[in-house]
Amino acid sequence: MKIKGFTLDLPVPENTVPLVFDSPHSGTEFPDDFSSPVSSEKLLTAWDAFVEDLWAPAVSQGASLLKAHFPRVYIDPNRAPDDVDARDVDGTLPFTCKPTVYSERGMGLIRKFALPGIPMYETPLTAKQIMDRIDTYYTPYHTALTERLETLHQTFGSVWHIDCHSMKSKGNAMNIDNGQPRPDIVLGDGDGTTCEEGFIAVIEDSFRSKGYSVSRNVPYKGGYLIRHYAAPTRNRHSMQIEINRAVYMDEQAFKPNNHYQTFKQDLSDLTKELCAYIRDAIDPSLSTPIK
Ligand SMILES: [Zn+2]
Protein backbone atom coordinates (compact mmCIF):
# COMPACT_ATOMS: atom_id res chain seq x y z
CA MET A 1 0.00 0.00 0.00
CA LYS A 2 1.27 3.44 -0.88
CA ILE A 3 0.81 6.18 1.72
CA LYS A 4 -0.22 9.70 0.80
CA GLY A 5 3.05 11.55 0.59
CA PHE A 6 2.14 14.92 2.04
CA THR A 7 -0.53 17.26 3.37
CA LEU A 8 -0.86 20.91 2.38
CA ASP A 9 -2.87 22.91 4.91
CA LEU A 10 -4.25 26.17 3.54
CA PRO A 11 -5.54 29.28 5.32
CA VAL A 12 -9.00 30.67 4.59
CA PRO A 13 -8.83 32.73 1.39
CA GLU A 14 -9.64 36.14 2.93
CA ASN A 15 -6.87 35.69 5.52
CA THR A 16 -4.13 34.44 3.19
CA VAL A 17 -0.64 35.91 3.29
CA PRO A 18 2.11 34.83 0.88
CA LEU A 19 3.97 32.81 3.50
CA VAL A 20 4.62 29.07 3.17
CA PHE A 21 6.12 26.76 5.78
CA ASP A 22 7.33 23.33 4.77
CA SER A 23 8.32 20.47 7.06
CA PRO A 24 10.13 17.84 4.98
CA HIS A 25 11.55 15.69 7.80
CA SER A 26 8.71 15.23 10.30
CA GLY A 27 7.05 12.26 8.56
CA THR A 28 6.78 8.91 10.32
CA GLU A 29 4.79 6.69 7.93
CA PHE A 30 7.00 4.09 6.29
CA PRO A 31 5.68 2.84 2.95
CA ASP A 32 5.30 -0.95 2.76
CA ASP A 33 8.31 -1.43 0.51
CA PHE A 34 10.64 -0.07 3.19
CA SER A 35 12.81 -2.69 4.84
CA SER A 36 15.92 -2.09 6.95
CA PRO A 37 17.87 -3.99 9.61
CA VAL A 38 18.16 -0.74 11.62
CA SER A 39 16.05 -0.52 14.79
CA SER A 40 13.18 1.95 14.80
CA GLU A 41 14.81 3.70 17.76
CA LYS A 42 17.90 4.45 15.69
CA LEU A 43 15.84 5.45 12.66
CA LEU A 44 13.92 7.92 14.82
CA THR A 45 17.09 9.93 15.51
CA ALA A 46 16.80 11.31 11.95
CA TRP A 47 13.19 12.41 12.58
CA ASP A 48 12.50 16.15 12.97
CA ALA A 49 10.05 15.21 15.71
CA PHE A 50 6.83 17.23 16.09
CA VAL A 51 7.99 20.04 13.79
CA GLU A 52 4.75 19.92 11.77
CA ASP A 53 2.74 20.23 14.99
CA LEU A 54 4.86 23.05 16.40
CA TRP A 55 4.19 25.19 13.31
CA ALA A 56 0.54 24.12 12.83
CA PRO A 57 -0.97 27.36 14.31
CA ALA A 58 0.58 29.28 11.39
CA VAL A 59 -2.32 28.20 9.17
CA SER A 60 -4.98 30.03 11.19
CA GLN A 61 -2.82 33.15 10.95
CA GLY A 62 -2.75 33.12 7.16
CA ALA A 63 0.23 30.94 6.22
CA SER A 64 0.26 27.66 4.26
CA LEU A 65 1.88 24.54 5.75
CA LEU A 66 3.22 21.63 3.70
CA LYS A 67 4.28 18.52 5.59
CA ALA A 68 5.74 15.24 4.39
CA HIS A 69 4.23 12.02 5.73
CA PHE A 70 7.10 9.77 4.67
CA PRO A 71 10.34 9.73 6.73
CA ARG A 72 13.47 11.45 5.44
CA VAL A 73 15.36 8.18 5.86
CA TYR A 74 13.09 6.78 3.09
CA ILE A 75 13.78 9.61 0.66
CA ASP A 76 14.90 13.14 1.48
CA PRO A 77 13.06 16.13 -0.08
CA ASN A 78 15.86 18.39 1.15
CA ARG A 79 18.30 16.95 -1.39
CA ALA A 80 18.68 17.42 -5.12
CA PRO A 81 16.94 14.61 -7.04
CA ASP A 82 20.29 13.53 -8.52
CA ASP A 83 22.25 13.64 -5.24
CA VAL A 84 22.94 9.91 -5.46
CA ASP A 85 26.21 8.00 -5.59
CA ALA A 86 25.83 5.58 -8.54
CA ARG A 87 27.96 3.04 -6.65
CA ASP A 88 25.15 2.74 -4.09
CA VAL A 89 22.58 1.68 -6.71
CA ASP A 90 21.80 -1.83 -7.94
CA GLY A 91 21.35 -1.11 -11.64
CA THR A 92 21.41 2.15 -13.56
CA LEU A 93 19.25 5.19 -12.91
CA PRO A 94 17.74 7.00 -15.94
CA PHE A 95 19.65 10.21 -15.10
CA THR A 96 23.22 11.22 -14.38
CA CYS A 97 24.06 10.99 -10.70
CA LYS A 98 25.65 14.09 -9.19
CA PRO A 99 26.58 13.15 -5.63
CA THR A 100 27.31 16.08 -3.32
CA VAL A 101 28.95 16.26 0.09
CA TYR A 102 25.63 15.04 1.53
CA SER A 103 25.99 11.74 -0.33
CA GLU A 104 29.64 11.58 0.74
CA ARG A 105 28.47 11.71 4.37
CA GLY A 106 25.86 8.99 3.72
CA MET A 107 22.97 11.47 3.78
CA GLY A 108 22.12 11.99 0.11
CA LEU A 109 18.72 11.63 -1.55
CA ILE A 110 18.63 8.01 -0.40
CA ARG A 111 20.23 7.67 2.97
CA LYS A 112 23.16 5.26 3.17
CA PHE A 113 23.82 5.32 6.93
CA ALA A 114 21.23 5.65 9.70
CA LEU A 115 23.94 6.71 12.14
CA PRO A 116 27.73 6.73 11.79
CA GLY A 117 28.84 3.19 10.85
CA ILE A 118 25.27 1.84 10.74
CA PRO A 119 24.17 1.11 7.14
CA MET A 120 20.50 1.63 6.27
CA TYR A 121 20.29 -1.40 3.96
CA GLU A 122 21.90 -4.84 3.75
CA THR A 123 22.08 -4.59 -0.05
CA PRO A 124 21.89 -1.54 -2.32
CA LEU A 125 18.42 -0.43 -3.44
CA THR A 126 17.58 -1.17 -7.07
CA ALA A 127 17.25 1.63 -9.60
CA LYS A 128 13.53 0.83 -9.83
CA GLN A 129 13.07 1.12 -6.05
CA ILE A 130 14.76 4.52 -6.08
CA MET A 131 12.72 5.74 -9.07
CA ASP A 132 9.50 4.61 -7.34
CA ARG A 133 10.43 6.66 -4.28
CA ILE A 134 11.22 9.70 -6.42
CA ASP A 135 8.03 9.44 -8.50
CA THR A 136 5.65 8.59 -5.66
CA TYR A 137 6.96 10.76 -2.80
CA TYR A 138 9.79 13.16 -3.70
CA THR A 139 8.35 14.71 -6.86
CA PRO A 140 4.77 15.19 -5.60
CA TYR A 141 6.11 16.97 -2.49
CA HIS A 142 8.13 19.37 -4.63
CA THR A 143 5.28 19.85 -7.09
CA ALA A 144 2.95 20.85 -4.24
CA LEU A 145 5.50 23.33 -2.89
CA THR A 146 6.27 24.73 -6.35
CA GLU A 147 2.60 25.26 -7.14
CA ARG A 148 1.77 26.90 -3.83
CA LEU A 149 4.72 29.29 -4.02
CA GLU A 150 3.84 30.10 -7.64
CA THR A 151 0.17 30.79 -6.88
CA LEU A 152 1.05 33.14 -4.02
CA HIS A 153 3.78 34.88 -6.01
CA GLN A 154 1.42 35.48 -8.91
CA THR A 155 -1.27 36.85 -6.62
CA PHE A 156 0.82 39.01 -4.29
CA GLY A 157 3.96 39.76 -6.31
CA SER A 158 6.18 38.33 -3.55
CA VAL A 159 6.38 35.14 -1.55
CA TRP A 160 8.22 34.09 1.59
CA HIS A 161 9.10 30.47 2.37
CA ILE A 162 10.38 28.94 5.61
CA ASP A 163 11.85 25.43 5.50
CA CYS A 164 11.31 23.99 9.00
CA HIS A 165 13.62 21.52 10.73
CA SER A 166 14.88 20.39 14.10
CA MET A 167 18.36 19.25 15.06
CA LYS A 168 19.93 17.08 17.72
CA SER A 169 21.32 19.17 20.58
CA LYS A 170 24.77 17.87 19.64
CA GLY A 171 26.00 16.74 16.21
CA ASN A 172 27.48 13.32 15.45
CA ALA A 173 30.20 12.19 13.03
CA MET A 174 27.83 12.46 10.04
CA ASN A 175 27.22 16.15 10.83
CA ILE A 176 29.54 19.02 10.02
CA ASP A 177 29.83 20.06 13.67
CA ASN A 178 30.60 16.68 15.27
CA GLY A 179 30.34 16.85 19.06
CA GLN A 180 29.65 20.58 19.32
CA PRO A 181 26.71 21.81 21.42
CA ARG A 182 24.24 23.82 19.33
CA PRO A 183 22.29 27.02 19.97
CA ASP A 184 18.51 26.92 20.49
CA ILE A 185 17.82 28.21 17.01
CA VAL A 186 19.86 28.25 13.79
CA LEU A 187 18.61 30.49 10.99
CA GLY A 188 19.96 29.68 7.53
CA ASP A 189 19.85 32.02 4.57
CA GLY A 190 22.86 30.83 2.58
CA ASP A 191 25.00 33.57 4.11
CA GLY A 192 22.53 36.25 3.11
CA THR A 193 21.79 34.98 -0.42
CA THR A 194 18.33 33.37 -0.18
CA CYS A 195 16.22 35.88 1.72
CA GLU A 196 15.84 39.60 2.28
CA GLU A 197 17.30 40.87 5.54
CA GLY A 198 14.11 42.42 7.00
CA PHE A 199 12.29 39.10 7.14
CA ILE A 200 15.05 37.13 8.83
CA ALA A 201 15.62 40.02 11.27
CA VAL A 202 11.99 39.77 12.46
CA ILE A 203 12.55 36.07 13.17
CA GLU A 204 15.87 36.58 14.93
CA ASP A 205 14.53 39.46 17.09
CA SER A 206 11.43 37.48 18.05
CA PHE A 207 13.41 34.46 19.24
CA ARG A 208 15.98 36.58 21.08
CA SER A 209 13.25 38.63 22.81
CA LYS A 210 11.90 35.38 24.26
CA GLY A 211 15.32 34.37 25.59
CA TYR A 212 16.40 31.82 22.97
CA SER A 213 19.99 31.69 21.71
CA VAL A 214 20.13 32.22 17.95
CA SER A 215 22.87 31.86 15.36
CA ARG A 216 22.83 32.56 11.65
CA ASN A 217 24.26 30.08 9.14
CA VAL A 218 26.37 28.25 11.75
CA PRO A 219 26.40 25.28 11.59
CA TYR A 220 23.60 25.23 8.98
CA LYS A 221 23.39 27.63 6.04
CA GLY A 222 20.25 25.99 4.65
CA GLY A 223 19.83 22.98 2.39
CA TYR A 224 18.59 22.14 -1.08
CA LEU A 225 15.02 23.29 -0.49
CA ILE A 226 15.82 26.91 0.20
CA ARG A 227 18.58 27.10 -2.41
CA HIS A 228 16.24 25.61 -5.01
CA TYR A 229 13.27 27.90 -4.32
CA ALA A 230 15.00 31.18 -3.41
CA ALA A 231 15.20 34.02 -5.93
CA PRO A 232 15.29 37.19 -3.80
CA THR A 233 15.75 39.49 -6.80
CA ARG A 234 12.37 38.22 -8.03
CA ASN A 235 10.79 38.62 -4.57
CA ARG A 236 11.00 34.94 -3.74
CA HIS A 237 12.49 34.62 -0.31
CA SER A 238 13.44 31.33 1.35
CA MET A 239 15.13 30.62 4.63
CA GLN A 240 15.58 27.71 7.00
CA ILE A 241 14.82 27.42 10.71
CA GLU A 242 16.54 24.66 12.70
CA ILE A 243 15.23 24.17 16.23
CA ASN A 244 17.35 22.45 18.85
CA ARG A 245 15.29 19.42 19.96
CA ALA A 246 16.32 19.90 23.58
CA VAL A 247 14.22 23.08 23.56
CA TYR A 248 10.94 21.20 23.16
CA MET A 249 11.45 17.45 23.63
CA ASP A 250 13.14 14.69 25.55
CA GLU A 251 15.61 13.50 22.92
CA GLN A 252 16.00 10.02 24.40
CA ALA A 253 12.31 9.30 24.96
CA PHE A 254 11.12 11.09 21.76
CA LYS A 255 8.43 12.85 23.78
CA PRO A 256 7.51 16.53 24.22
CA ASN A 257 9.05 18.11 27.33
CA ASN A 258 7.58 20.58 29.82
CA HIS A 259 8.47 23.55 27.59
CA TYR A 260 6.65 22.21 24.53
CA GLN A 261 3.40 24.17 24.80
CA THR A 262 5.19 27.40 25.72
CA PHE A 263 7.50 27.00 22.76
CA LYS A 264 4.59 26.27 20.43
CA GLN A 265 2.97 29.49 21.61
CA ASP A 266 6.25 31.35 21.03
CA LEU A 267 6.29 30.08 17.42
CA SER A 268 2.68 31.16 17.03
CA ASP A 269 3.57 34.66 18.28
CA LEU A 270 6.50 34.73 15.87
CA THR A 271 4.25 33.77 12.95
CA LYS A 272 1.84 36.55 13.86
CA GLU A 273 4.72 39.04 13.69
CA LEU A 274 5.80 37.61 10.32
CA CYS A 275 2.29 37.85 8.87
CA ALA A 276 2.11 41.51 10.01
CA TYR A 277 5.52 42.17 8.44
CA ILE A 278 4.40 40.63 5.15
CA ARG A 279 1.07 42.47 5.08
CA ASP A 280 3.03 45.72 5.46
CA ALA A 281 5.54 44.71 2.79
CA ILE A 282 3.19 43.72 -0.02
CA ASP A 283 1.30 46.14 -2.22
CA PRO A 284 -2.12 46.56 -0.51
CA SER A 285 -3.86 46.53 -3.88
CA LEU A 286 -2.65 42.94 -4.33
CA SER A 287 -3.92 41.60 -1.00
CA THR A 288 -7.16 40.26 -2.39
CA PRO A 289 -8.58 36.95 -1.24
CA ILE A 290 -7.30 33.97 -3.19
CA LYS A 291 -8.40 30.43 -3.57
ZN1 LIG B 1 15.45 18.35 8.96
- What is the CATH architecture term? 3-Layer(aba) Sandwich
Kindly report how far apart the N and C termini lie: 32 Å
Biggest pleated sheet: 7 strands, mixed
* Molecular shape: globular
**CATH topology-level fold name:** Aminopeptidase
Based on CA atoms alone, the radius of gyration comes out at 19 Å
Give the topology string: H per helix, E per strand: EEHHEEHEEEHEEHEHEEEH
The beta-strand count equals 13
**Numbering strands along the chain, what is their spatial order in the largest sheet?**
1-3-2-8-11-9-10
According to CATH, what is the class? Alpha Beta
Which secondary-structure class do the elements indicate? alpha/beta
Multimeric state of these chains? single chain
InterPro entries: N-FG_amidohydro
Organism: Kordiimonas sediminis
Protein name: N-formylglutamate amidohydrolase
Throw out a few tags for this protein.
binds zinc ion; 13 strands; single chain; alpha/beta; N-formylglutamate amidohydrolase; 7 helices; seven-stranded mixed β-sheet; 291 residues; two-stranded parallel sheet; N-FG_amidohydro; Aminopeptidase; globular
Give a summary of the structure in a few sentences.
The protein is of the alpha/beta class. It has helices spanning 40-44, 51-54, 101-104, 127-156, 197-209, 224-229, 260-281; strands at 6-9, 19-23, 64-68, 89-90, 113-115, 118-119, 125-126, 159-167, 185-188, 214-216, 236-244, 249-250, 255-256. A hairpin with a 2-residue loop joins strand 5 (113-115) and strand 6.
Structure report:
With 291 residues, the protein is an alpha/beta fold. It has one domain: Aminopeptidase. It contains 7 helices and 13 strands. The protein has helices at 40-44, 51-54, 101-104, 127-156, 197-209, 224-229, 260-281, and strands spanning 6-9, 19-23, 64-68, 89-90, 113-115, 118-119, 125-126, 159-167, 185-188, 214-216, 236-244, 249-250, 255-256. Helix 5 (197-209) links the parallel strand 9 and strand 10 (214-216). Helix 5 (197-209) runs antiparallel to helix 7. The radius of gyration is 19 Å and the shape is globular. It starts with 5 loop residues before the first strand and ends in a 10-residue tail after the last helix. Zinc ion is lined by residues 25, 48, 165.
